Automatic annotation (TrEMBL):
GO molecular function: ABC-type transporter activity; ATP binding; ATP hydrolysis activity
Keyword Heme included in the entry's annotation: no
One Pfam family recorded for the sequence: ABC_tran
UniProt xrefs under PROSITE patterns: ABC_TRANSPORTER_1 (PS00211), ABC_TRANSPORTER_2 (PS50893)
Keyword annotations: ATP-binding, Nucleotide-binding, Translocase, Transport
Domain of life: Bacteria
Protein name: Teichoic acids export ABC transporter ATP-binding subunit TagH
Recorded GO CC terms: membrane
All residue ranges annotated as the ABC transporter domain in the record: 22-243
UniProt xrefs under CDD domains: ABC_KpsT_Wzt
Family: Belongs to the ABC transporter superfamily.
Gene behind the chain: tagH
């Protein structure tokens, strides 16, 4: 089976500062201030061409960081990432320029992807129609609701015909009818053999749509396998997690982080 994504030992390190002064001082005197924080460490998974993979995990587990690294928006600190094909990421307001109008955003995004003026004019009406933003398309994006931004982002991304489509929570905002239309579009993509990564807190959507699951926990892969293998375990965990009082969650988190400390990071 041809691979669309191979991720090996992906690490993303951020530096956390106590305020802007520390950040500035760290710039002037390198490595003088700030604390290392690993948003991802040792992340590994593979996607075959045509796979639909769900990223799950509680808040802050690293789903968006991993999505952004795969989309080339955020650089990784270390690791190896092989991507076969063009990637499009749809996240709430991802990559939209707030001061530009919806139409300008469409044109800019397509220009950046290498489409010429003629091709842009040809695709624009389909994008506007799909987004259902006809009345607002010449208004600045900063006046849009998060649902409207998500619709514009979705309409652009599916119309540029990517090989790998990442949808990060973009269908959790906005109306049900648009989400249904988007799911139909995604089913079309699936039939065309495109690879998709779907990030959502909705187990129902995961079951409906995904074939494989990457379960992230504090920046590490807790489990990777088929939906039938991984989702029941994740659901059982979530049930316990929701019942867990805060101090217990802290202990759980610490155990996971200690485990990571004992796992060498290359
Ligand atoms: N630019 C940044 N600087 C410092 N820390 C960051 C940065 N971006 C993300 N993080 C941290 O990295 C961790 C992973 O964040 P990420 O947004 O990837 O998680 P997530 O699983 O997508 O969470 P959610 O479900 O809440 O969207 C979090 O602890 C977050 O605070």
């Amino acid at each position: 089976m041809e691979k669309a994504i191979i991720a090996k030992d992906i690490v993303k390190k951020y530096k956390l500062y106590n305020g802007p002064k520390e950040r500035l001082l760290d710039l002037i005197i390198p490595r003088s201030y700030g604390e290392d924080f690993y948003a991802l460490s040792g992340v590994e998974f593979e996607a075959d061409k045509g796979d639909i993979i769900g990223f799950v995990g509680v808040n802050g587990s690293g789903k968006s960081t991993l999505s952004n690294i795969i989309a080339g928006i955020v650089p990784m600190t270390s690791g190896e990432l092989i991507i076969n094909g063009q990637v499009a990421l749809i996240a709430i307001s991802s990559g939209l320029k707030e001061d530009l109008t919806g139409r300008d955003n469409i044109e800019l995004k397509l220009l950046m992807l290498g489409f010429n003026k003629h091709e842009i004019k040809e695709r624009e009406p389909d994008i506007i129609e799909f987004s259902e933003l006809e009345k607002f398309i010449d208004q600045p994006v900063k006046s849009y609701s998060s649902g409207m931004k998500s619709r514009l982002g979705f309409a652009i991304s599916v119309n540029v015909d990517p090989d790998i489509l990442i949808i990060d929570e973009a269908l959790s905002v906005g109306d049900k009818a648009f989400a249904e239309k988007s799911f139909n579009k995604m089913r079309e993509f699936k039939e065309m053999g495109k690879t998709m990564i779907f990030v959502s807190h909705s187990i129902k959507q995961m079951k409906k749509f995904c074939e494989k699951i990457v379960w992230l926990e504090y920046g590490m892969v807790k489990d990777f396998g088929t939906v039938d293998e991984v989702l029941p375990k994740y659901e059982a965990f979530l049930k316990e997690w929701k019942k867990m009082p805060k101090p217990e969650r802290k202990v759980y988190r610490q155990k996971a982080l200690d485990h990571r400390k004992n796992t060498p990071i290359v």
